[in-house]
């Protein structure tokens, strides 16, 4: 009687072994179908508010997506070791930063994008005029470079959310002469911190609104080309200041 049970016990043993071998593969197959989890960078609530929507604008401004922006290029107050007087705008085209010098060795630092025109001029100037939601007229060179995009606006584009100058513009003058150099907003926030094909000095719309509100007409501006505002030692001190 007991001998008759032996084959059944052997079959059961083999079944258990087969199940034990198959189970890990089945589980592995299930796991492999799951998409990889990507780390989501946490955005500081202060920055989320800083770059949030502006419903009070002439053209209600949506929030700027800063989730893919290098945090270095977000607005902040930093230590300042330059020689310029408070109230001066300093544009460091090489490092992609704009500084508004303040009292007590401090400055507000903004990230910028630098266009081809932004690399064509350097030196000292003053804010000759300011504009909210400015109109824009492409230059002849811009029309030649991108005719399909720019020729329709040869007569000028009115201010608005699609205008390349963004929400505000500062126009730089030298001795009463328009340098054709602009510090302005942008419709391409991804370009902040980058070198781009056209335009002068572009900023996040929320940042140019902030800068525009802080500087009066006549404010001095220094544009640096081919040189850094701080040396390496100073940069380390600035970096450790926040």
TrEMBL record:
Tell me the superkingdom of the source: Bacteria
UniProt pathway annotation:
Cell wall biogenesis; peptidoglycan biosynthesis
Any keyword Glycosyltransferase?
yes
Q: Where is the active site?
A: 184, 200
InterPro entries per the UniProt record, alphabetical: LD-transpeptidase, LD_TPept_cat_dom, Transpep_catalytic_dom
Domain L,D-TPase catalytic positions: 87-224
Question: What are the alphabetically sorted keywords of the record?
Answer: Cell shape, Cell wall biogenesis/degradation, Glycosyltransferase, Hydrolase, Peptidoglycan synthesis, Signal, Transferase
* Cross-referenced Pfam families: YkuD (PF03734)
Where does the signal peptide begin and end? 1-28
Q: Which family does it belong to?
A: Belongs to the YkuD family.
**Protein known as:** L,D-transpeptidase
| Species, as recorded | Microvirga terrestris
């Amino acid at each position: 009687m007991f001998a008759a049970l032996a084959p059944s016990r052997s079959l059961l043993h083999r079944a258990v072994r087969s199940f034990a071998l198959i189970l890990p593969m089945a589980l592995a197959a299930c796991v492999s179908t799951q998409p990889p989890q990507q780390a989501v960078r946490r955005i500081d609530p202060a920055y989320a508010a800083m770059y949030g929507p502006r419903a009070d604008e002439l053209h209600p401004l949506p929030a700027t997506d800063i989730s893919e922006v290098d945090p270095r290029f977000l607005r902040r107050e930093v230590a300042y070791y330059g020689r310029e007087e408070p109230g001066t705008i300093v544009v460091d085209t090489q490092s992609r930063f704009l500084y508004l010098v303040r009292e007590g060795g401090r400055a507000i630092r903004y990230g910028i994008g630098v266009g081809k025109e932004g690399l064509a001029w350097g030196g000292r100037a003053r804010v000759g005029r300011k504009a909210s939601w400015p109109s824009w007229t492409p230059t002849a060179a811009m029309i030649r470079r991108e005719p399909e995009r720019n020729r329709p606006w040869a007569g000028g584009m009115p201010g608005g959310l699609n205008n390349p100058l963004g929400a505000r513009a500062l126009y730089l003058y030298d001795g009463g002469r328009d340098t054709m150099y602009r510090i302005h907003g942008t419709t391409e926030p991804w370009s902040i911190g980058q070198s781009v094909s056209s335009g002068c000095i572009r900023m996040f719309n929320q940042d140019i609104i902030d800068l525009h509100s802080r500087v009066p007409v006549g404010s001095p501006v220094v544009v640096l080309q081919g040189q850094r505002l701080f040396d390496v030692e100073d940069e380390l001190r600035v970096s450790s200041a926040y």
